[in-house]
Amino acid sequence: MGWKMNFIGEKIRITDNGFRQVNRLYQAQDCKGCPVREACNKSKGNRRIEINPGLSYYKSIIRERLTSERGRKYRSQRPVDVEAVFGIIKGNKNYRKFLLRGLEKAEIEVRLLALSHNLSKIAARN
Fold first, then answer.
1. Do 92 and 116 have their domain in common?
2. What angle do CA 49, 10, 60 make, to 5 degrees?
3. Within this chain, do residues 11 and 41 fall inside the same structural domain, yes or no?
4. How many domains is the chain built from?
5. Could you give the CA distance from residue 2 to residue 59 in angstroms, rounded to a whole number?
6. Which tens digits make up the pLDDT trace of 13-57?
């Protein structure tokens, strides 16, 4: 509804991999009588949101890179360069899931798949 959210404090959170996040907490002034309350807020109190300034900063940098001339060029190449390879491996070679378990064994499987794909490309040229 365009109402102002007031800053109420910061919340420090440690992620599963040990990364420290500082989120800023904001709360609406008064949600009683708001016509869109049911769609916006499920809790009994006023609406609260968390904003991670560090994440917002990095998202803005990435957005600039993706929308730059160079970023648009690389994004336009992705469907040609990457997506086709996965389609060939999944569709033509009927490879849908890893056969071995564990990160090390899965990496070996991926390398073997890449090797077989590259060899088939070389064979098709000759």
1. yes
2. 65
3. yes
4. 2
5. 23
6. 998 889 899 999 999 888 787 888 888 888 888 888 899 998 899
